Amino acid sequence: METFEWENFLKVAYRDWCNVQSLNKFRRAPSNAERVSLCIGLAIWSDKNVCRLIKRCVEQSYMETSGKSDEVSRSWREKGNELFKERHYNEALLCYTQSVLTASCNIDNADTSNRVELAMAFGNRSATLYHLNQYELALQECDQAISHGYPRASLHKLLQRKGLCLMEMGQQHLATIVLREALLALDEAVNLSLERKESLKSEIEKLLNNCTHPSVSENTSVSIKPTKPEDLRQSSDKLASASRSLGLRFNLDRGRYLVADLPVNAGELLIKEIPYAVILLPEYRKTHCHYSGNRAG
């Protein structure tokens, strides 16, 4: 059986099943679990051609539904590069995110050679986030790029950026370690001229010196974490989700309305409640999870 397609599969399945004994067993099975067991026990599942056909169909179905393609991913990344050159960082970030989402990647395979597009997209995201002063997020993207096999020839640039992020976050000791790794990676960058290598080496060594002898401004820790929403000073025992400072009033002209029964400080939180439903704004639909609201990647 050189060519095995679904028609052949159905013929063999029909041959195995269409006998009185098999059908009676299936009909008399006391539970669905036993019926499934009978189906799994068919001899056809041990046929190598059947297994090969099913595997091919599953892989094809996955590719059709997931939309994963290195070519598409590269196209998004190149579009992002053009926007990045024009310093349109937010728009570039959207393109790089699409590049991450469309890059093919077999995470079950320890070999990272098939993840170059994914790693490059993460690297580009890190550069964009760095320019947007999102240093902690940029640091995470650097680690993602490295874990997915970022090209060794350009690894020094990624490590240098990671070191810069750590410096901006006030983590000088970790920055020193990473920048030294960048120097080692620079030695392995065989595609660079000697003059270019010396220039980059001098640049990284200058950063290392700044880590060892930071100025006052360079030693200032930059926090990019969003502030935690404040809580109500005191919750009302009459109005759900409202501050105790508020009271409910009613008259025929205005209907129901809230007033301040107690002194209210400037900027004080007066109402806080969990939303009944959440939907992403259009500008975040390609970058954030529609379920959790967290940033993708």
Explain the overall architecture:
The chain has 297 residues and is mainly alpha-helical. 53% of the residues lie in helices and 4% in strands. It is built from eleven helices and two strands. The protein has helices spanning 6-17, 20-28, 32-40, 48-66, 70-85, 89-102, 116-131, 135-147, 155-168, 172-187, 194-212; strands at 246-251, 255-260. It has a two-stranded antiparallel sheet. Strand 1 (246-251) and strand 2 form a beta hairpin. Helix 5 (70-85) runs antiparallel to helix 6 (89-102), helix 6 runs antiparallel to helix 7 (116-131) and helix 8 runs antiparallel to helix 9 (155-168). The protein starts with 5 loop residues before the first helix and ends in a 37-residue tail after the last strand.
Largest sheet, spatial ordering of strands: 1-2
Low-confidence stretches: 216-227
Mean pLDDT: 80
Shape: flat
Give me the secondary-structure category: mainly alpha
Task: Output the number of helix runs.
Answer: 11
Q: Could you spell the SSE succession in H and E letters?
A: HHHHHHHHHHHEE
Main β-sheet, in a few words? 2 strands, antiparallel
Tally of extended strands? 2
InterPro entries: SET-MYND_domain_protein, TPR-like_helical_dom_sf
Protein name: SET and MYND domain-containing protein 4-like
GO molecular function: histone deacetylase binding; methyltransferase activity
Keywords: Methyltransferase, S-adenosyl-L-methionine, Transferase
